[in-house]
Amino acid sequence: VFENMDIKKEVFGKLDAIARPGAILASNTSYLDVNEIATSTGRPQDVVGLHFFSPANVMRLLEIVRGDRTAPDVLVTALAVARKIGKVPVVVGVCHGFVGNRMLAARSAENEALLLEGASPEQIDRVFTDFGWPMGPFAMGDLAGLDIGWRNRKALGRTAPIADALCEAGRFGQKTGKGFYRYDGRKAEIDPEVNALIEEASRKAGVGRRAVSAEEITERTLYPMINEGARILEEKIAARASDIDLVWVNGYGFPVGKGGPMFWAELTGLETIVAALDRWHAGTGRDLFRPAGLLRRLVETGGGFRRGRDENDMKHPLSGRKTP
């Protein structure tokens, strides 16, 4: 049952007819609208999202997606089950991608543009691993399978010229031995064919290639992710900034020593992030870089995501210890 709303609703309609009254109907969807799935049943109060992260036997995060009509006792049961099986549960609201994948989309939005403008997959991945991530976005895509994103883009009518070209050539990542890298077992090697493909895509798009700095890569990938996190807080999809940090540390490999994206953003300086977002928004016009209202208000008032705490007295959201 992959990410297709018609299939999800068909399955949940059948479950509704055979499951006993009071049984919880939960979907492992990573993107789809839990409220719409619930309409295919006569018990929307018993429908909830339980988004496990891959590989589910290893990853600790469990996003518990609360629908508009999900009953409180269903949430309590979902939290209890999550803890019983050793997961870190975070309750989130309904939107496309919920918290984790919505922010991941913002983090990834500039990847293709960076490649077209002159960066290489290995350079971008190195910026991420130098930051402390276990792997960069292109290595991660190869591990997960590039065909997953390709299928999702086609369903949404979207394109990513470089990634799409790789998939059209049968380069799905590690499982086919070739993706953004070529593989000897699990060892990634730079593939000149990919660099040639990227350069050809730049030529076709009329984009002049140039040197791209590590600082620019950070500003165009991590800063939009922070911006999307602020929008998620504004929309009350997440109850608090520390919930977002828990999602990213336990589900996506954000370096635990940096506390999570929202905690790291405060240490970096929200004014620094907003200034960079303004600069990139002015230069590109892309809404991705338009600072969220919450971010701008916090900069104007000198506040932070953790209301009432002085910046020098913030406690680490995961350990409870004060940051040195």
Q: What's a quick, concise take on this entry?
A:
The protein is built from 15 helices and six strands.
Order of helices and strands: HEHEEHEHHHHHHEEHHHHHH
What is the distance, rounded to the nearest whole angstrom, between the alpha carbons of the first and last residues?
A: 47 Å
Which class of secondary structure composition applies to the elements? alpha/beta
**Could you name the ranges where pLDDT drops below 50 across 5 or more consecutive residues?**
308-324
What does this structure look like?
Helix content is 51%, strand content 8%. It is α/β, with parallel strands linked by helices. A four-stranded mixed sheet has the order 1-2-3-4. A two-stranded antiparallel sheet has the order 5-6. Strand 2 and strand 3 form a beta hairpin.
Secondary structure elements and their pairing?
Blueprint: H1 5-18, E1 25-27, H2 34-38, E2 47-52, E3 61-65, H3 72-84, E4 88-92, H4 100-108, H5 111-117, H6 121-131, H7 137-144, H8 146-156, H9 161-168, E5 182-184, E6 187-189, H10 192-205, H11 214-234, H12 241-251, H13 261-268, H14 270-284, H15 293-301
Parallel strand pairs: 1-2, 3-4
Antiparallel strand pairs: 2-3, 5-6
Helix pairs in contact: 4-11, 9-10, 11-14
Keywords, separated by commas or semicolons:
51% helix, single chain, alpha/beta, two-stranded antiparallel ribbon, four-stranded mixed sheet
